[in-house]
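Intended use. Records like the one below are meant for learning the mapping from a protein sequence to its folded structure. Do not use them to infer anything beyond what is encoded.
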Amino acid sequence: MGCLAARLSAFAVPKDLPNNKSLKSILNNDINNLLISSSGASISSQEYKRSVRGLLAARPLVLAQNVGMPDPVIYRSKVGTHWNKHIVEISLKTWPKSNPTRVRETAQIQAAAMRSLVAMGTDPLELTIEVCRQKGVLILASYRMNAEDWHKNTWMLSDFGRAHEQSRIPDTGALDPMDPAVYNHRKDLFREVTENFDIDGIEFDYMRWNHMISKPRENYPILTREVSETRKMLDEVARKKGRERLILGARVGYSLDGPPVGRSDFSCKDLGLDIKNWIDRGLVDYLCPSYFWPRLPGMPKTTEFVELAKDSKTGIYPTVFPYAAWQDEPKQTLIAETNKEAMARLLREICQAGLKGYAEGADGLSTFNWVHHHQPGMVHNPMRTGWGLGSKKVQMRAHQNLGSPAALRECLKAGMTEG
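Structure written out for the chain above:
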């Protein structure tokens, strides 16, 4: 890890980052998307980099690559647990009634790919950085701040979690940053990745999942302190590296203080996020307000955030999701390439949602976990091929035009006939 900078010396490291309100589009990619699509134990660094290049064909200005939950992580670390260590065991424990062979194989492919890359002296984050530097895309290390993707078992994915079971938020799979041990462990994770990798900053993803801290309306100052101290750390490391600055972004709730929506969507206040404080103090460079997993148009309350940030340097990038209610019908969730009518409809609705965000004052747009990372040229795992190619093509086409309202209008006009 120590010689990463030397290996990247041939690639341009941006000295002057864009204005926070000029980031155009921010793509948040899931932690294991590319690992799942890989050939597992047979993976090579070139294979992984080809997949990253395929992802960047979506033309984001910023790739916020999820690298940790916050722990485990998909990079070489002395602080966090490597992704491969417990993933098979906990996947089988979490989904015992699903097809156990499929669950095991999917987890094993991720674990084997991670182990193989580390054995080669590299890892997914380092390879992603290399490709981003070649393509001129800003790369942020994104952390799910209290992931519960493995539901109440998520805490067992890391060695730290297993050693601190008593630190869980009651009845969840999340650890509580009210515990100083949890807080300090995360602080060490963020410093390690910033010091050891040539990233352009960090993104805190407070939208995955719902429990950021115990009693969030009382304990929110702890999360504000975490944001403030991370901002200070990024500024310190930037100076040491000769960088103008490093970015701190955050994915946040759909509204500043609105009512809960269903079981998944909570306001920033109910997540423990003091957005006004963060903006007023200049702690965050951008915010991505978002629903958890909506159907189109599914746009957050963008105007609330725009109004709060209008006299600040904080950019607002609401999150566009590429799924519509009509796709929930049988066999419609992922569209086949032969279903041209559905493809055209989905593209139209994505573009309209993006234009709505711009009309409400957004500085740009963000996305979360679109499936275009499974384009055929990126897939090396037979289990991931042949499904929903129409959806993938629509999402890639739309994503390439999210950076401006003019591009979205042109895309809306042209449909799938170009690109």
